[in-house]
Write a structure and sequence with these properties.
By secondary structure, this protein is of the alpha+beta class. Helices cover about 30% and strands about 20% of the residues.
Amino acid sequence: MKWTTEELEGPRIDRRTAGKLFAAAGISSLAGCAGGSGGEETEAATSEVESESESSGSEAVIGFNIDEIEFLDPHYVDKGQEITLHSNIYSGLTKIGPDGSIVGDLAVDWSIPDSTTYEFDLVEGATFHNGDPVDADAIKASIDRLRNLDDSPHLGKVESIDSVEAVDATTLRINLASTVGPFISFMTRGPGRAGTIVHAEAAEEDPDGYNRMPVGSGPFELIEREPGEYLQFEAHDDYHETDADGNALPYLDSLRVDLIPEPSTMWTAMQGGEIDYSNQVPAQNAAQAESMDSLNIVGANPGAWFCIAPLCNDPAEVEWQQYASGNEQATDKWADQDLPTSNPAVREAIAKAIDREALIERAHFGYAEPAHSLWNPSIPSLHEEEPDPGQYYAPDEARSLLDEAGYTGEPRMTLSLLGGPTDERRMTVVQQMLAEVGIEVELNIQQSSSFWDTLYRYENELVMYDGYVDIDPWMSVWKQLKTPAEGSAGDWQANLYNNPEFNSLLEEDYQTADPETRAQVMKEAEEIFVEDTAWVMTTFPLIPKGSAANFNGIGNQAGLSNFHAARFE
């Protein structure tokens, strides 16, 4: 479908309200955390959860805007909403708390005697879904399994480990070969991380089966799945975490995840009470949802960023593209064609052609803030006040840059923009804006299951690309923009960006323990990012998530939807 300008209108929130939402939903940066606690600092304990007697069990029905959940082995999966499900199936050594800090999970506390030694005190009595104990030996086996998987996207996070020791049943020691600044962040459960604990024996016995029906130690056990339709979970009766009053978690008896790729279908299901929670409410419907007594908007997380990722290099000329993409062969599409986006001036022109204020009004309905740089307001140590949007929306300058680059035809160039179904509105607005400076854009809309494969063929000059900033800033850019070498750096490289100076700064940050020094290094890296227009940053969106009015206690840390403390009231 093609939207007209008139159709790209709808209910919206004003910018003042959006600013308040950003402030209310903010999370803090924690580069270089030196310790943590479980129990008292858990998500459940800090969310003022009511006692079990005041909550009901039963089943919650969850809507995910995806057409398929393919794999669930966290040592291999590193994208999409599979990661969201990890937080409900698995426990981690540590996890991200509600304020953005790193808190305990299977580890109730930890210490760092020196920059290369980490000692974790483990919870007693934790079990996997099959009843096997989750003790120091089991956690060691999980980490060692990952260390031996040469095809895992997370290998780079554990390659610095010299040894893992099960000191006793409740004490784990990890010895590093050298200082790694973001290491404690690596050991959390969550996107792009290595701290999610698998049942190593089960995973090694049947890797394919484990990918589809894993054994974890999280609050819910996967018991059934219908491809392309739903996944069915039951509560893990021996889940180790309790609420602040000592009541067992999870409160829910069961959880069903319905796969609903079409946004309009998701909204209809929300309105009709067919689902209790949606991991993404279309922005054009969010204001209506807020006005309804039967629905709540929850988890509007300001940690998100949204950009256009322009292909920076011809894949056939990039030695590491096969590693970054996982494809066996580079596309030959550009062998006899011009790749305009390899020119930094063209990328800058595209950036200057985007009216971010108009994009927020027409595509986000006010649920966003304009973005020019990399660092989201969720990283207060690095975020700087955005300049007036007029300073970087400059269509006349965009046309001049294209003239200087030699693109003077009519149209100046034709580019393909890749995105998913939930991106269509944004893509259409961007299409109209680029047309104003003479760039014709063809939209390529793919379902989630095919989006990543399409992206990593590198046949589209532009990709509508989104993600979340990380509590450790290095984690925000390493997998996305660092040129791959050894390890797993760059395996989310959407646009084959390469700048040796930028790469060097990421390496420096990686090898630095002091948080203040790391912050300064990352600011220098960000200056290069902006100068190169590595990404065309557009917005920091609030991603509205919706729930039934009586369904509360859902965690939304790091963009994840966690249901271990969710309950009906």
